[in-house]
Design a protein that fits this description.
Elements lengths: L3 E5 L3 E10 L2 E6 L2 E6 L15 E6 L10 E7 L4 E3 L2 H13 L10 E9 L2 E8 L5 E9 L1 E2 L4 E4 L5 H15 L3 E8 L6 E4 L5 H12 L3 E9 L4 E6 L8
Parallel strand pairs: 4-6, 10-13, 12-14, 13-15
Antiparallel strand pairs: 1-16, 2-3, 2-5, 3-4, 5-6, 6-7, 8-9, 9-10, 11-12, 15-16
Length: about 240
């Protein structure tokens, strides 16, 4: 298997201690307690266990910040789960611009955080003959016992709005894509997390039937800080 390196990060390591709130982690390194910024608001209960090895990018010196860095990944038995959504998005954008995502060939990123139907979508894109499309990117880092990465691991009304907006866009004849970044090293496919948010899982199915593309791609993080593309078109299971 040949990996396409998308990003290189300067990572430091620590051990998980606790999660006082969604955005803050307490970690330990060399006997010292550290505060890390967490940008993944999911549950992450299967990853953030006592003593789990954490990988973070240190902050530039800034006395006003209460944290020493931003959490990027969490070690698993099989490798490292890349849990930071902004880093996932950076990797996705690089893969797209580099021509590594086959289902986006000849489609170009022309806008970010675009407001459509009173909802903000991640990307506006331009395709052949001036066609316009929209793409929403989500993080799928939860791994079930069958090797399927799932989204969302907590109920998401925001995700529900995004899927419904994409469905409305597609019914107007515009290309609409929901893309999932499967960022667990053991992931073999994607499925909506029916057990956590059955309504959203049903919306995925209805959106697909209306012509919305549900796509998934797999990326991995190495201990050396390389974010690499493993599979640009991972199997998607909606039933």
């Amino acid at each position: 298997m040949t990996l396409k390196v998308l990003l290189r990060l300067a990572l430091k390591r620590s051990k998980f201690v606790s999660r006082p709130n969604r955005f803050l982690l307490i970690a330990e390194s060399g006997g010292e307690l550290l505060k890390l910024h967490n940008r993944n608001t999911g549950r992450l209960g299967e990853l953030l266990r006592a003593g789990a090895e954490l990988f973070y990018v240190p902050r530039d010196a800034d006395r006003s910040s209460p944290t020493v860095g931003t959490l990027i990944g969490v070690s698993t038995d099989e490798g490292i789960a890349l849990i930071d959504p902004p880093t996932q998005a950076r990797a996705f954008e690089y893969a797209w611009r580099s021509g590594c995502v086959n289902w986006l060939n000849r489609w170009y990123l022309v806008g970010k955080e675009v407001k459509v139907c009173d909802v903000r979508l991640d990307y506006e894109m331009l395709g052949p003959r001036g066609k316009v499309g929209y793409l929403e990117l989500k993080s799928a880092v939860y791994l079930d016992p069958l090797g399927r990465c799932s989204y969302p691991d907590v109920p998401s009304e925001r995700g529900l709005r995004h899927v419904r907006t994409l469905k409305a866009i597609r019914r107007r004849g515009v290309r609409a894509v929901m893309a999932l970044v499967a960022a667990h090293p053991s992931c073999r496919s994607f499925r909506p997390f029916v057990e956590r948010h059955p309504e959203l899982a049903s919306e995925f199915m209805r959106a697909s039937e209306a012509g919305v593309e549900i796509r998934a791609l797999k990326v991995v993080l190495s201990r050396e800080g390389c974010v690499s593309l493993v599979e640009p078109d991972l199997p998607v299971l909606l039933t």
